[in-house]
């Protein structure tokens, strides 16, 4: 589960990050001057192979394009378990990934979508995305699909409880080395329930003949033309404030979904790239979000 271009190992020291949007300074002529998305640790300027960047489409602000990796994860989950018109769906866990799933589901006709979280404040985000909100004890059951993204045992258990007979939980969570205990005796077999994983590392088999991972990322960026995704950005800080910001997020004093980091105050110098590498000046990137289930 190493991030692209990661250096070091946990618990530290480690150079870790994920989502970046920047401007290409030098490299292939067709990319020079373009705004592109890439996966790279927090850094004001870096050099990557040209194949590691994806141009941001016209009409997608760079500030919103930082969500591309998160929306790509949500898109892959919907490919893993394609919703159908008339389905009843819950999304358990209103973090950045869960909210991205809910935002995409809100576009489907004739679907009932409910975003479920323990934090009542996430009701405002659900409203902005155009879906219903519920606390776990209030969530409506009889669901055809539940997309689980809380990364908690309690969230996964509640997801199973919300299913109708023959229903399916699609689990997007990463639990690390934490064991998870589930009630697979009670109603799991009698209702013929399904629990399946979704992971963005590969394109689902049903789409693999048509889409590469690069095609999927390009589609995610195109979906970000919709300004509704701005509701997922809940804060912004300068790069120099990153040590303080990361400490506050880790301690739970700075809750939110996507917290962007601005790199614009750091002006890069001159770079001489190799033929297959592209130096970038990063404009903004989200740090790990304070996600609750």
From TrEMBL:
UniProt GO molecular function: metal ion binding; oxidoreductase activity
Ranges for region Disordered: 268-293
Biased composition (Low complexity): 282-293
Ketopantoate reductase N-terminal domain mapped to chain residues: 89-125
Assigned keywords, A-Z: Metal-binding, Oxidoreductase, Zinc
Source organism superkingdom: Bacteria
Pfam families: ApbA
Cofactor: Zn(2+)
InterPro entries, A to Z: GroES-like_sf (IPR011032), KPR_N (IPR013332), NAD(P)-bd_dom_sf (IPR036291)
PANTHER family: D-GULOSIDE 3-DEHYDROGENASE, NAD-DEPENDENT ALCOHOL DEHYDROGENASE
Protein family per UniProt: Belongs to the zinc-containing alcohol dehydrogenase family.
Protein name, entry field: Zinc-binding alcohol dehydrogenase
